[in-house]
Amino acid sequence: MAQFGTVFCDHFVSAKFVEDSWQPPELQPIGPIPMHPAAHVLHYASTCFEGFKAYRWKDGKARIYRLHDHVARMQKSAASLRLPIPDADMLAKMVIDLVARQIDDIPEPPSSLYLRPTLIGTVENIGAAAAPSTEALLYVIASPVGDYFSSGARTLKLLIDDQNVRTTAQLGSTKTGGNYAAALGPTLDAKAKYGVDQVLFCPGGDVQETGAANFLLISDDEVITKPLDSSFLHGMTRDSILRLAADLGYTVNERNFTVDELLQYVSTHEAALSGTAATLSPVGCLVYNGEEFTVRDGKPGPNTEKLRAALQAVQNGSAPDKHGWLTEV
Ligand SMILES: Cc1ncc(COP(=O)(O)O)c(C=O)c1O
Question: Which ranges of 116-235 would DSSP assign to H, the alpha helix?
Answer without folding.
Answer: 177-194
